[in-house]
Amino acid sequence: MIGRIGIRPNFWLFPVSLIVILGLASVSPAGLPGAHVAAARPPVQLSSFDIASAVPRPVEETTALSVQRDYAHAWQSLISALESNRADLLNEDFTGGARQQWAEAISLQQRNRLSRRIEDHGHHVRVTFYSPDGSAMEATDTADFDIQYYEGTRILFSEHVRTRYLVLLTPGENSWKLRILQEVPAS
Amino acid sequence: MNKLLPVLLIILAAALIAAATIHSSSLVPATTPEGAVRALLNQVKARDAVGAYQYVATASNTAPDDFKRDVFGQESNLRTYSSLQLFDTKVLREDDQEASVRANLEWASAVGAVRDTRDLKVVREDNSWKVIWPVQSRPKVPPQVIPVNYLRWDIVTRGLDDDWGAQNVDAPRVRIISMNPVEKDGDFILLGEIENEDTVPGFVSVAATLIGKDGQVIAQEESFDKISHVLLPKEISPFRIDFPNVSRDRIKSVHMQPNAMLVPASADPVMGVMHQALNKDARGHSVLKGELMNQSGQTVNIPHVLATFYDSAGKVIWVSDGYVDQSLAPMTPVAFSIGVRDDLASQIHSYRVTVNQYTRDRVQ
Amino acid sequence: MFPLRRSLILGIVCATVLTCAAQVRVPATVQAGSGTTVQASGSGSTMLYLFGPGGALKREVQRGNIEISGQELKVAGRYTVIVDGDSASFFVTAAPLQKIAFVAHPSRVPAAASRAVQGSAFLFDGFQNLVLTPIPVTFRLAVEGDNGEERRTSSRDGVAWVQLNSGRRSGPAHFVVTSGAIQVRRIVQQVAADPCSIRMSALRAPDGNILVETAPVQDCSGNAVPDGTIVTFTSVDAAGRSAVDARIKRGIARAELPASRSATLSVAAGVVLGNEIHWGGGQ
């Protein structure tokens, strides 16, 4: 029989589709590395930002404000990037060695279906060096985190850490960028 | 009837084509001196050199080509990139045989509106009025070789790759050496001078931000073309930044931002600014007149003259500029004239003229 | 709460089944690029996870001594090893100094300027990690043939810096930072400062114009002001003011001003004024 060519809506398909979609949503992380990340993270807070001991050049007030903003944003990007395994999120705030190293870490996480979820509990930043020509700033950052290590959606391990970073920031075109983010043993 | 219609249409078309073709050679003779000037200028406006030339009196002793070059430009000078936009005329004096008509002209050009006033002599010739349009003959530069061995600065910078800490060359060091805020006709204007203190050339600009009494930014502007952008070592340029319709009493502070970039540049052409003097123009307004002398071997297509006026204390009280619509042939003086504020003429104690230049087929 | 409960359950289970539990032991620190051994108690195969700043590793291993290669530990920072739900952390520290990122400023400096030359040296190992142990660093700034200036210092948190006076002689100065066997060189162009004084002379050209010419233009240390520097000659007479922005060429600036019977001639470079000549009349 030669039937008419046309589109006849199959109304029974809509509830079925809805069920499938809702079902997928309810088991969302299954098999999707990094999918546990969907929730929006609160912005990273710098609990303190001390510029009093910066040498040899004092940090100008406007510079300090920019650095605080950009550094907090960089952490926000790193946390999101490690959680969702998206190295592209680093491009705006990271440069040089730091971008390369963390991008590599993310690439390996992705390859091994691993991820890290970091809950940030604040940073105490102290600027120790601001170059005379204003082209580099070094700081130490003592930060508190809750870190959960994932394989797929399975938590491998959770820990709370209080850690110390050595940070090197350099000015980019519109913002300060993280060039070195090196975790060091607490002295 | 079937054959008649096409024939009529062909005749009509031929008549229209003929009318269109011969219109420029059969212009209506001018019956008044002002009519002659207006007719000539209308043809210039329509960019019809042949038509305009029909209103030029024989007594002008001006060849058609010279007239065309004078009105429509040559050697890529500013007139080449201009067209007559507006004009008005006024009879100053008239008798049976001769009259004087003032024409205020406004040219639309690549650098904005250029205004010009000409007092034209109009004479009766062959039962109609025609305009005396003298064209200053330019001395021809004799064929010669002019050796130019001035410095040229080329720049090698580091690559775009992220080679942090690698050697690079700094932007030139520039400094605003004077600044004077003034108010005129409801506009707020910043005047001053900037010096390239470095030993390399720089492309400079000056930006200004006005901060209001509430701490908010009122306006931001740049010096645009009221500055010499390329400054050689130790060269000083005036700058003027206009903020239209901003009253001074709204402003709490002004933030000035001199910017400089390292650019390749050449130390030539050297231009002399000769016989500068403050005068009055035909309408009685104050003008600064003088002559530009291109002391190098290459024609400068568009000269731009910037004048800084100082009071007796050496403070910059005004900056004005003007484009010269003639090109500057080597070693050939060309007159310039820049308007000066009449209300300031009595306060002007000294002045300094600098010349920007645009030369075709030349990168720097 | 959740990890605690998980560890508890794991502990109870592993108390009965010996092979599934693993106690992980690691060294406190490892030098970047060097391998290390992770000790996981028990026997049999299991999965090892390693999270660090430069990577994330998952590998099936035999319990006991587990080798981690130097390639996997290049980036300095804290690494977390997880085996069978147990974990341990260690730090990778920078390897010996391999590279100095030397930021020197400015690239041009007027001669004899106080504390005008600045240098910051960032000390890195071969893996882009900052070397944090204090290391002696020497900075030296000198024009060839000059003694120049030298400063010794020690790095702190991977950075050493210096501020030096520029030399009195113009020319390319070598600004060198040295630490151990590593040396990095930058060129700082020491240039003449502002002209110290400008002396001008004038004579009549064959065509009647006035030829003006400066003596060699120098700064106060005797350095020749660079070619290309603008020198403005001005003549003021009854016909008005004439000015030429001449360029210094081979140390001297010259220009031709229009003929005049009586004029005042002056010369300036930037904001530095030279002498004045009264031309004509008594001359």
The CATH topology of chain A turns out to be Nuclear Transport Factor 2, Chain: A
Most strands sheet of chain A? 6 strands, mixed
- The name of the CATH architecture of chain A is Roll
Number of distinct beta strands of chain A: 6
Taken from the alpha-carbon principal axes, the silhouette of chain B is globular
What's the CATH architecture name of the largest domain in chain B?
Roll
User: How much β-strand is present in the residues of chain A?
Assistant: 35-45%
Biggest beta-sheet profile of chain B: 4 strands, antiparallel
Number of helices of chain A: 3
Residue share in helix of chain A: 25-40%
CATH class wording of the largest domain in chain B:
Alpha Beta
The Rg value of chain A, from CA coordinates, equals 22 Å
Number of domains of chain A: 1
Cα(first) to Cα(last) distance of chain B is 71 Å
Name of the CATH homologous superfamily of the largest domain in chain B:
NTF2-like, domain 1
Mean pLDDT of chain B: 87
Output the helix-strand order of chain A. Answer: HEEHHEEEE
Low-confidence residue ranges of chain B: 20-25
Derived from helix and strand composition plus strand pairing, the structural class of chain A reads alpha/beta
**Topology order of chain B in helix (H) and strand (E) letters:** HHHHEEEEEEEEEEEEEEEEEEE
Question: What is the CATH T-level topology of the largest domain in chain B?
Answer: Nuclear Transport Factor 2, Chain: A
